[in-house]
Amino acid sequence: MAGSTTRTAIDRIERPWGDRTPYTRGERWPTRVDTQLAGGVTEADVDRWVPAASLLHSNGDAMDIAVKDETIVGVRGRGADRVNAGRLGPKDLYGWQANNSADRLTRPLVRRGGELVESDWDTAMDAIVDRCRALISDPDHGPEAIGFYTSGQLYLEEYYTLGVIARAGIGTPHLDGNTRLCTATAAEALKESFGSDGQPGSYSDVDHTDTIALFGHNVAATQTVLWMRILDRLDGPTPPRLICVDPRRTAVAERADIHLAPRPGTNLALMNGLLHEIIRNHWYEPDFVTDHTVGFADLARTAADYPPARVADICGIDAGDLMDAAELIGTTDRLLSTVLQGFYQSHQATAAAVQVNNIHLLRAMLGRPGCGVLQMNGQPTAQNTRECGANGDLPGFRNWANEDHVHELAELWDVSVDRIPHDGPPTHAMEIFRLAETGSVRLLWISATNPAVSLPELARIRDILGDEELFVVAQDLFRTETAELADVVLPAATWGEKTGTFTNADRTVHLAEKAVDPPGAARADLDIFVDFAARMDFRDQHGRPLIRWADPEGAFRAWQRCSAGRPCDYTGFSYEFLRAAGGTQWPLPAGSSAGTERLYVDRRFPTDADECETFGKDIADGTPVSPSDYRARDPHGRALLKAATYSQPREVPSEAYPFSLITGRTLYHFHTRTKTGRAPELQAAAPEVWVQVNPDDARTLEIEEGQMLEIINTRSRVHARARIGDVRPGVLFLPFHYGYWDVDDSAGHDRAANELTPTDWDPASKQPIFKTSVAALRKAPR
Ligand SMILES: Nc1nc2c(c(=O)[nH]1)N[C@H]1C(S)=C(S)[C@@H](COP(=O)(O)OP(=O)(O)OC[C@H]3O[C@@H](n4cnc5c(=O)[nH]c(N)nc54)[C@H](O)[C@@H]3O)O[C@H]1N2
Ligand SMILES: Nc1nc2c(c(=O)[nH]1)N[C@H]1C(S)=C(S)[C@@H](COP(=O)(O)OP(=O)(O)OC[C@H]3O[C@@H](n4cnc5c(=O)[nH]c(N)nc54)[C@H](O)[C@@H]3O)O[C@H]1N2
Ligand SMILES: [Mo]
């Protein structure tokens, strides 16, 4: 474990958001440069500063990495960048120490006689290649026996390369990212409403807005720098009003003018209630609705069934609070909304997220300063997984059901159209694991994700990954819980050790450059994929290598050609451009010099049948709309208003399991803690798992603060210490960060939240439902 860091300013564990720099509406957010360096190192000691951006959330905070004696010794925010104006959050200030951790993987591991043993690249790669070839040529299997499960934490260049390998090299439909657990619903909601993925809004909307509504988004903990920007507006002379929708009293809720704390899983009813009031009070823009949308009559009909009293009853909230929120949202001049996991991982995820888009469409709150929807991303590079088609879509936001789009790719890659699987939607992650369980997927290559802690129903996931019939490749920095179950472990370089680009939640692209060499024989993920393609000898129709690039810049150029003319057009970028300009928002077509602040300024949406990324689905039950049905009602550039009725969650509290169980995050840790658990300050700030319990429930069960509790349901049990307060009655909150790599578990498996979560997903986005299950609670037996 790395030594501890010195404070260069105030203690950012105690005060995560630092000092305020208040500003007023329409002003530029003031600069404040945050720095953190290793103990004893001063800025004068630093040999060089290497530009990068944050890889521990989706905010895309620009920073420079401090290098001394060829080692990373700290970070400093970039004051000139549009995203953070110099600020960094606690995870970024301290998390870099994980790079230097003594337990990094430095050599490939292969399983021999049941044990993982150190090996070399030739042995490890040949083992993978031999297995792939054998499966592809086996008449009982073929390319579909191979699956890839990747990440929202690699770089654009790596996803694009992996996508081409999977789709045009191997020809398997089984490629998805952990973005399925993360922002599949964001993508689906954007596609369903606007025709294509792509964030309409911009972080600069915070500077101009009058009202900010956060739907299931604990931004104070999860995008700390975006919250700093909001806090600075709140402390300025023209503070925006704030609405928070979250069953917990989070730091966001504490600052909110209106806090709605619905029962978990009732978001859609709440949203329909807001729409009911907006429509009944004529708080919408009839001309915009007529000229630029389709579906209003249907939406109005659905919303009419959700009067405040009924919604209050379903959601367990006060009808007056709901009406106040509706009036604020319905009458404000500028509205900025954000949506995240409280919606995306809850019951009726897509249907609820789409209603946020509907509010903005009804009120014409798009495409001008201060007005925007941020269907947020979570992971740093999730946007690129989606753009590059490593997420179960086709690259460049292309529509797998549109033969012309598939032809474009075939031409670009110079392969036959039939090589690219497109006779159905690409396989979603939960289905890939199901196919591994049933034995039809026989090789699963997992990169930059730790499903043995992050997927639901972990006992089942361990069984699948541990099955001898399944050949598992794990590509990671550390011996994670997943790596422990793998047949081959590939040691990867990470942030700071490789070059590439990535795109944050408001479409801002950054270039992150290599600062130091990776440890030992660890290699950049791009190099690993390129090496695999060469060993497999993938060729195009003219006999040329399928992957004709060997470095990040070459991969970036190949991607640029793929993005040309699409909504995410990157043709105006280059590494040189990014070095000079810093963070810049796509689309940036060739020849343009400034990024695109907001989409849909011209009120034209990419919904035309020839253009759209999807023909859409029923947002409630997931039934796809057929191409002919879509074409028959081609919206021709108008946005779609889609409605859905509330249904009860699959699991509701009962006598045996009286609590709703929700899961999520703490400010100090990132996911399965492979990085933040190795940063001493962050680990010390949140060393072990806890469960949040309402004070009334604690009183009834005679539970005291800090007491060890047992959370039980039909799937498993988890032990966690009580943290009493700040959650609505009848609800338990468990952070999902705590797996087993740093505890002596002896197969006890009793602390990961996902021991308890169900194998269940949203029918439209296929995103797992991590936030609507049930449990019983009792004091742990001694
Ligand atoms: N510190 C930190 N920051 C991170 C990450 C991290 O691990 N740690 N991860 C990054 C990633 S990948 C992601 S996806 C984002 C996630 O960022 P967030 O979505 O902000 O984080 P979560 O804690 O998962 O969930 C947000 C809130 O949803 C609420 N919630 C639960 N159920 C419901 C419900 O039914 N309805 C409503 N309205 N709310 C509900 C929870 O109480 C919680 O406060 O954070 C990113 N940033
Ligand atoms: N119960 C519950 N479960 C959840 C959630 C929840 O709210 N509740 N949230 C879900 C969400 S939104 C997400 S995003 C997922 C996250 O789940 P995971 O993706 O499984 O979590 P991470 O710990 O980020 O795993 C990333 C892995 O990639 C490795 N890594 C980092 N950088 C690199 C790199 O450059 N190359 C390679 N090869 N490896 C690298 C890290 O060491 C780590 O092991 O969890 C999901 N699971
Ligand atoms: Mo995520």
Share of residues in strands: 15-25%
Q: Number of folding domains?
A: 3
Rg, alpha carbons: 25 Å
CATH architecture of the largest domain: 3-Layer(aba) Sandwich
The strands making up the biggest β-sheet line up spatially as 7-6-18-17-16-8-9
Question: Which stretches are low in confidence, meaning pLDDT under 50 for 5 or more residues running?
Answer: 1-8
Oligomerization? single chain
| Overall geometric form | globular
Mean pLDDT figure: 97
The proportion of residues forming helix, as a percent range, comes to: 25-40%
What structural class do helix, strand and pairing data support?
alpha/beta
Query: How many strand units?
Result: 28
Give the bound compounds.
Answer: ligand MGD, molybdenum atom
Head-to-tail CA distance between termini: 32 Å
Note the main sheet.
7 strands, mixed
Q: What is the count of DSSP helices, taking H or I runs of 4+ residues?
A: 26
Keywords: 4Fe-4S, Iron, Iron-sulfur, Metal-binding, Molybdenum, Nitrate assimilation, Oxidoreductase
Domain 4Fe-4S Mo/W bis-MGD-type: 47-103
Pfam families: Molybdopterin, Molydop_binding
Protein name: Putative nitrate reductase
Question: What would you note in describing this structure?
Answer:
- By secondary structure, the protein is an alpha/beta fold.
- The chain has three domains: 109-182 and 381-498 and 521-571, Rossmann fold, CATH 3.40.50; 184-376 and 606-640, Dimethylsulfoxide Reductase, domain 2 (3-Layer(aba) Sandwich); 659-779, Barwin-like endoglucanases (Beta Barrel).
- Helix content is 29%, strand content 16%.
- It has 26 helices and 28 strands.
- A seven-stranded mixed sheet has the order 7-6-18-17-16-8-9, with helices on both faces.
- β25 (708-712) and β26 (717-724) form a beta hairpin.
- The chain is globular, with a radius of gyration of 25 Å.
- Residues 1-8 have low confidence and may be disordered.
- Bound molecules: ligand MGD (2 copies) and molybdenum atom.
